[in-house]
Amino acid sequence: MATFERLKIVMIGSDEMLKYLVDRYAQHGGYEVITLQSALPYQQICDLHPLAVLFPSIQGLERSQTLVAELVNCEIPIIVCSSVADTARARELGADQCLAHPLTYEDFSLAMAATETRGATGGRV
Fold first, then answer.
1. What is the model's pTM?
2. Is the bond into 102 cis (omega within 30 degrees of 0)?
3. In a domain, 63, yes or no
4. Which has the higher per-residue pLDDT, 115 or 123?
5. Contact call for residues 74 and 62 (beta carbons, < 8 A)
6. For residues 84-101, b (16+ Cβ closer than 10 Å) or e, as one string?
7. Domain that holds residue 95
8. Quick one: which of 16, 31, 41, 116 could link to 26 by a disulfide (CB 3.0–4.6 Å)?
9. Coil, strand or helix: which one is 113?
10. Strand, coil or helix: what is 16?
């Protein structure tokens, strides 16, 4: 009998309220969230085969520029939760997608669907 493995999302950061919300949305969507207080070496994240790496803030994305650059080698999409005003900056810093505050389940689901589609096409979103 085959076991079903849920798609993983790696969340890097310590925003407890956002973590709670993302966990609930992920559970409802059939995803597993692995939360890291700080980034692991990129190869360890790649070995997890996550659907995406999510940063809860633009500041976390800014602090993790070395990791973001290395994750390109694994073709793992980068998602950041930010204000609409920070979208352009987030893209400059390597985010493939931005989830605007306040985060809704619909926006989360659309981002995950787009990310899953990237897996089917073999590239970043």
1. 0.90
2. yes
3. yes
4. 115
5. no
6. eebbebbeebbbbbbbee
7. 7-119
8. 31
9. helix
10. helix
